[in-house]
Amino acid sequence: MSVTREGSDMAGTPVLGFIGLGVMGSRMCANLVRRSGATVVVFDPVEDAVDAAVALGARRCAGIGELARDADIVFLSLPSIAEVESVCEELSAAAGRPRIVVDMSTSDVQRTRELAARLEKSGVALVDAPVARLRQAAEDGTLLITVGATEARFAELEPFLSCMGSDIVHAGGTGNGQVMKILNNMVLFLNMNALAEALTIGRAAGVDGALLFRTLALGSADSFALRRTATATMIPDEFPERAFPTNYAIKDLALALQLAHDQGIELPAAGQTMALLERTRDAGYGENYYPSMIKLVDGRG
After folding, report:
1. EC number(s) for this protein (predicted)?
2. Active site residue 181
3. How many Cβ atoms are within 10 Å of 251's Cβ, its own excluded?
4. If you write DSSP's letter for every residue of 1-26 in order, what string do you get?
């Protein structure tokens, strides 16, 4: 499929760019390639990640500048707002810069809104569309995606976002997608903290851990975190690397605490969970899946 200078293929479909082919991004990009019907151009500093995307049908770009010239809409899946800001500066400075940048990372709300205002002056629209759910959901294209955008832009992007997610929520204006994602993760981490404490108490009192979790799932304590994440990790006591590490959980919860601080709201429960996550990191589990926090709760850390 040939690409015009206007960032669309010869049939008029926008050319899509994707930057950030990590654990989640590589799977999201793969679904965009398979399902969107659009030309997808990609860039990542890790060559193997680019090779895998190209094998699926994406086209390689030598750098961010080349991708900016070719793509009309660019999707980002990056570690933090710092990387998002840096990449967006390159995108907006490039000749033939993209029309829309969609940040699918989990990013600071205020800095997202400030970045959107700066990009607007260059004629580039920033949409925040962070994702929730596990790696398998990224593989299956069943992510939850919360979107901060105008109604018109949301309508334009929804068909492409639907290639990667099964639940696409218009959260309101710029930054609101990030608010939704940050609060989702805050509640998740607090839930996991509570489950770690419940499991520790139950075992100490002579109750089988697996039986405890199965029983909690039958009552009002039921949750996705209980049925999926806690049961899969805390019961077998397995906390692999290259899942969602403690360091990432700390970063995301810090965003919630900052958001609360900006609104003049105190979060004692979230603060306690942050302290537990930081102790987990300091005990050497920073790169392990964050439910490893139980090791600190039960005294093994």
Report:
1. 1.1.-.-
2. yes
3. 17
4. --B-TTSBBTTSPBPEEEE--SHHHH
Q: Give the separation between CA 238 and CA 15, rounded to whole angstroms.
A: 42
Question: What is the reported pTM?
Answer: 0.91
Q: CA 214 to CA 37: how far, in whole Å? A: 43
Tokens 């679904």, residue located: 31
Given a contact cutoff of 8 angstroms between Cβ atoms, the answer to whether 146 and 129 are in contact is yes
| Cβ atoms < 10 Å from Cβ of 236 | 10
CA-nearest of 254, 248, 299 to 274 is 254
Q: For the chain, state the CA radius of gyration.
A: 20
Neighbour count for residue 88 (Cβ, 10 Å): 27
- Pair 146, 169: CB distance under 8 Å: yes
pLDDT at position 211 is 98
In this structure, what token pair is assigned to residue 3? 């690409």
Instruction: Tell me phi and psi for residue 286, to 5 degrees.
Output: -60, -35
Q: What is the pLDDT of residues 14-55, one digit of tens each?
A: 999 999 999 999 999 999 999 999 999 999 999 999 999 999
Rounded distance between C-alpha atoms, residue 180 and residue 56, angstroms: 32
How far apart, in whole angstroms, are the C-alpha atoms of residue 61 and residue 140? 26
Above 50 in pLDDT, residue 245? yes
CB-based contact 131:165 (threshold 8 Å): yes
Which member of 121, 181, 251, 295 is catalytic? 181
Pairing relationship of beta strands 40-43 and 59-60 according to DSSP bridges: parallel
Residue 94 per-residue DSSP state: S
Give 266-288 pLDDT, tens digit per residue.
999 999 999 999 999 999 999 99
